[in-house]
Amino acid sequence: MSDRTEESTTGAPKSGESTLTVLLAGAANLAIAVLKAIAGVITGSAAMLSEAAHSVADTFTEVLLLTALRRSDRPADRVHPFGYGKERYFWALLAAVSIFASGAMFSFYEGFRTVFGEPEEQSSPLVGYVVLAIAFCLESTSWLQAMRQVRRESREQRRSIVEYLRLTDDPAPKTVLFEDSAALVGLLLAFAGIGLHQLTGSSVWDGLASVAIGALLALVAYLLARTNRHLLIGRSADPVLVRRIRDRIVAVDQVDALVDLQTMLMGTDQVLVCARVDFDDSLTAGELEHLCVKLAATLREELPDIDEVFLEPVPRTDPELRAAVLGRYGR
């Protein structure tokens, strides 16, 4: 956590790269959507039309992610004293919903209409192949940028890519990586559908490819929605950061015990810390106040991801408090 933490406080390199990743993905998806729509009309391919809807959904997703990046950076105010960091999760959740609503549902419709409807003649399949090849090149450019960001940040955190994607508090690169990965797989499915239609003369294959694209988009939408649901509800901070907070508090000479430690992500690189601490009973009220202020300042200085710190002096022997902690974490 430490390496990523240091970088996030020097400015906005992380946010800036997320914006670049989203902008590149949005530009690629808009161009691809137009090409696919034209090719879908010319070829009459359900899979190609599904891919056009897929790219439209992805373009709308990038607009939502840009909105998330802009609005989540607003400073705290009287109405939102903890800032607007969670707006990033809200708009990212809407992006996941848009992938399902506009991409997956249209793909299912086109697929089932083609499979169960009247057989359709295929025309100009070469146009479809050319457009799919161009789209694959453009999507690969966007995918490489997203993967470059994910790989760099996972390496800085000394984590595998899978672990990074599971624990990241920035939904933008994860959303772009997932949707671009789905787009590349979708292009291969569309290519297979058009190719099998041409080889067999049956449009059923084209319809099945469209259904498969819809299922793929539904899966991606579910995975992204689940991630943002956890973040919106209030997920705990990175376990590495939590351990560092705990170690830093218990290292203070005047601390007898850390009774309870709660953290919550308030946004990307914004962590709320609430700690119940059993301090040395010999401290005066004034000394305790100064120690709390100093400890909170030290935590924010050494661990810049920490945004707010609340310290509560408590006796570790209090039975109700002990029961509450054990109820949350177990023995």
TrEMBL record:
| PANTHER family attached to this UniProt entry | HUEL-CATION TRANSPORTER (PTHR13414), PROTON-COUPLED ZINC ANTIPORTER SLC30A9, MITOCHONDRIAL (PTHR13414:SF9)
Principal place where this protein is found?
membrane
For this protein, the parts annotated as crossing the membrane are 20-46, 89-106, 126-146, 176-196, 208-225
Molecular function (GO) terms listed? Answer: monoatomic cation transmembrane transporter activity
Q: Which Pfam families match?
A: Cation_efflux
The record's keywords, sorted A to Z, are: Membrane, Transmembrane, Transmembrane helix, Transport
Write out the GO biological process terms: zinc ion transport
Record InterPro entries: Cation_efflux (IPR002524), Cation_efflux_CTD_sf (IPR036837), Cation_efflux_TM (IPR058533), Cation_efflux_TMD_sf (IPR027469), SLC30A9 (IPR040177)
Q: Where in the cell is it found?
A: Membrane
Q: Which organism is it from?
A: Prauserella cavernicola
* Superkingdom per UniProt: Bacteria
**One GO term of the cellular component aspect?**
membrane
Full protein name: Cation transporter
Calcium listed as a keyword? no
Positions of the Cation efflux protein transmembrane domain: 22-232
Tell me yes or no: is Transmembrane among this UniProt entry's keywords: yes
The annotated topology with respect to the bilayer is: Multi-pass membrane protein
